[in-house]
User: What shape does this take?
Amino acid sequence: MAGTAGTAGTAGPRLCRRLEGETARAVLANADTLLFDCDGVLWRGDTAISGAPAALGRLAAAGKRLCYVTNNSGRTRVAYTEKLRRLGFPPAEPRHIFGSAFCAARYLRQALPPGAAAYVLGGPALAAELEAVGIPHLGPGPAALPGPAPADWAKAPLDPAVRAVLVGFDEHFSYAKLCQALRYLLQNPDCLLVGTNRDHRLPLEGGAAIPGTGCLVKAVETAAQREAFIVGKPNRFMFDCVASEFQVDPARTIMVGDRLDTDILMGNSCGLTTLLTLTGVTALDEVQAHLDSDCPARHSLVPDYYVDSIADLLPALGE
Assistant: This one.
């Protein structure tokens, strides 16, 4: 592919070149750390992408640091280590996993005063990560409106300790929860509004999709007329979490992902080398449209390199 996008991770324009042969060997040799998105890159659902465990095994054997950065707030760090093991990937410790649930808990631990609580629109994993850092919370699970009329809805009890509203993926999202979130934000102008990510749609097998967390974040933002702080990709906060845990040199780090507007944008914004894999949601014609555009902002969505699959790295990694 060709184009004129500026680059952060490599010298010269980002051209979305196929990563193969000597170029692949040189790029991988120059890298100390690789950051992997998970779904669509390493696996689809509960099935590993063919060749991905072997590729990561060779990277680990070559002494590369492997970290996992995901916007999914539905699993804890420990749950991700168990899934990696179950699917045959190299062993990982929880400290190598940077999910949006963990990063949100880390952000609130830094931003909230001691003893402050969070009202959570999210699931058990988000609650568990908050508990792990000592942040009291309420909200997970189903919620019902407290009465038949709007006047009743505006009188439901509020916990005075709540100083943040945290929005993640919530299968029990409801009007009742939206009402409570708005009331906490209106009651205290200093109450934080935090979202795990803005992914608007979650793809499923066969071309199906379900609404993503971004839809829920937008609902709360619209009601509150406030913009949430987003901890997940493409916000650099997720990379900063990695950099605070490990000594990471951006010039020697590769971001591997399947989404241009999250994985690739974060990598480019943080000065990483970016590698797109085509096993997920992005096709090459989307990249070409960004390359051909006169809009500089669209050029930030162009990766340095692409592969059809992570398994394509195997020849460059030897035996």
